[in-house]
Amino acid sequence: MNLAIRDIRQNTVRFALTVTGVALLLTGASGMGGLYRGVVDDALRQLRLMKTDLWVVEGGTSGPFSEPSKVPFEVRDRALGVAGVANARSYFESSAMVQGTNLAVLGVDWPNDRGDWLPLTQGRHLAAGRGEAVVDRSLGYAIGDTMRLGRDDYQIVGIADRFISSMGDGMIALSLADARELQSERPVAEVRDANAKRARADGSLRTTPPGTSRDGGGSAMATAVLVDLAPGADQAVVARTIRQWGDVNVVPHEAQETFLLDGRLGRLRAQILTFTVLLFLITALVVTLIVYTLTMEKLHTIAMLKLLGARDRVILGLIVQQALAIGIAGFVVAQVMGALLFPLFPRTVVLTPGDRATYGAVLLVICIAASALGISRAMRVEAQEVLA
């Protein structure tokens, strides 16, 4: 009979409690990593849906996905006059609150941009310049419902899937005219509070959220202008031409992803990595303590095995197999816990098969390393100790 299995059967309750503790720690560690992946996936999803070639942003900034930006609405018309530009559309984003829920408002440059890129699951895209809205399904609206924003009502004509801002808020798409009017209605005090909140969230020294001017809500400006190049146009030449205006900066679309990951999400990545490492260290300590305790309780049995002529590899196998059993069972239970808990999180948790394999491999390495202390103590046991 396998000695490790026999010992586990004799201590079933303690083994189950140990496995549960390890599973909870692993669930926490994998949940932290999955949460970061989910935040990145949501943020990049919005950026990639708005695919374009160049972002024209406020001079001296990198764009709205790394820091606040504002440009005059006339920049769109100026961009359309540049050789090599096929299309240009204003991008406008602000915040609002509906029935105590924060949401992000996206101004679609209708009719130049009808929001055809929005990931609709129901309904249709915007077909009018006023009074229509497309919302994320997390906001709980249905096709035909009416949403009250500011002094106006907006009819819900489309429901989108995972239409979420980089800050995790559900989004609503309005025509640019509606979004500008909504922003201009906001009291200066409300705008100032929103500025301060966004600045704290971004860790930025700037205090102006995308789409608003520094002097309050009454003189809203575009967040950026998205420029699509004509076939065969030289991106570098077009970008250089626009930069020469002096009041704006031009950022390639691909660079926005880098700015987003290294800027707004950089600090979050460092924090999550720190907590994940801490949880794995705690797991290592817990498993080490349990395996060492189990070994100490079996010193008399180990001495008897040595007296009967058992080889060291038999004793080593007993300890290592118990540690691996704890790790494997903990990993399986953690997967079940994750499958039940992660869908309940308010933010998306993304765990790839590669992530799961990595966490499992780390846990097995921890269990093997944790058994080293117990093995060291067991190897020092002498056969004559059975008589003690």
Automatic annotation (TrEMBL):
It is a multi-pass membrane protein. Keywords: Cell membrane, Membrane, Transmembrane, Transmembrane helix, Transport. The lineage of its organism: Bacteria, Pseudomonadati, Gemmatimonadota, Gemmatimonadia, Gemmatimonadales. This is Uncharacterized protein. Residues 193-218 are annotated as: Disordered. Residues 193-203 have a biased composition (Basic and acidic residues). Residues 16-244 form the MacB-like periplasmic core domain. GO terms for cellular component: plasma membrane. It comes from the Bacteria. It comes from Gemmatimonas phototrophica. The chain crosses the membrane at residues 272-294, 315-345, 357-375. Residues 274-382 form the ABC3 transporter permease C-terminal domain. It is found in: Cell membrane.
